């Protein structure tokens, strides 16, 4: 349900003007940066330099990050350009009237308004009101470190597994605690996936995620330099996993699907189908999803239906960004007791004092009762094999 069924018309106009400005500003920056780096590559600098230079100093992960940044920037521009060309083709032959422009604008808004306005807020708000949490918390949290690991290759593997563990904790709790879901829900609101959906995050979410990562990684001995390097790898891969079906139809990446979180895995995470809700919390390596039973492969017979389970017009950015917070406030306000008020804040989304069958885990459990084969993973098969041996 939408909390603003008839949103204020003036507010929608302000949103649309902000979107047009953000679109122009971000596209100008994307294209000019892309062109500048591509041109500098002719002289061995730019993109080429960013890939080759780290190889000389054996910082291979920096080359990988550069390759992913080039791939991501190319795909983001390609996806936007392709959508606009497709819309213009669809409208070819129609008269040049106001409604034609309105239809094109609506489709571009559905695909890009959430991400472009969210990026604008992410860029502006922290700079206006906050200093980045990481640098504030780091010196204090470093004091609780019990030991630090070295920078050998096996330490990097260990550090990466620790990072994925803290990612799983942050992401799982963001789905299972109503207050934290308010910060994470904007990321799940878009009904169309494209690589810019990775930009759709509530501005305060990064502070929560940074604290969780620091509180888990520091006692486990992971150095800040590793934290930053791993976070960069995770970020660039995270952007790629949002690639649209138009760009990469299946997105399973062949044999890599058994080792990595692929676009197909992340499409499952964004889907609201009962089979898919609250699964695939990892960003790069699904080891903890596998361990904790939250891994769900994409099933061809269940096509992904993206977005929130409540009624939401994705072009209503105010509702998309703040809607969950306002619904939580209303539920807390109407709760009859202090206990129920507190439970609304900490219980999973969908929970009410009289009913807990509308939570994502209950919906998935009920679905799997009648369709058990769809939820089977390699872990289930391994456990069954071990059981049959004993
Ligand atoms: Zn999520
Ligand atoms: Zn996502």
Describe the structure.
The structure is a single chain. This protein has about 400 residues and is mainly α. The chain has a domain at about 10-230. The protein contains 15 helices and no strands. Helix 1 (about 10-40) crosses helix 3 (about 60-90), helix 2 (about 45-55) packs antiparallel against helix 3 and helix 3 runs parallel beside helix 9. The longest helix has about 35 residues, at about 10-40. The chain is globular and about 70 Å long. Bound molecules: zinc ion (2 copies).
Q: Which hetero compounds are present in the coordinates?
A: zinc ion
Work out the radius of gyration: 22 Å
Tertiary shape: globular
Contiguous uncertain segments of 5+ residues: none
Helix proportion = 55-70%
Label the structural class: mainly alpha
Question: Secondary-structure element sequence?
Answer: HHHHHHHHHHHHHHH
Largest sheet: none
Question: Based on DSSP secondary structure assignment, what is the total number of beta strands?
Answer: 0
Compute the number of helices.
15
Mean pLDDT: 90
Q: Report, as a whole number of angstroms, the end-to-end distance.
A: 51 Å
Strand content: under 5%
Q: What keyword list fits this structure?
A:
single chain; about 400 residues; mainly alpha; 15 helices; about 65% helix; about 0% strand; globular; binds zinc ion
Quick description:
The chain is mostly helical.
Record the SSE blueprint.
Layout: H1 9-41, H2 46-56, H3 60-90, H4 98-129, H5 133-142, H6 153-176, H7 178-188, H8 205-217, H9 224-240, H10 263-270, H11 287-292, H12 317-334, H13 338-346, H14 360-370, H15 378-389
Bound molecules: zinc ion (ZN) (2 copies).
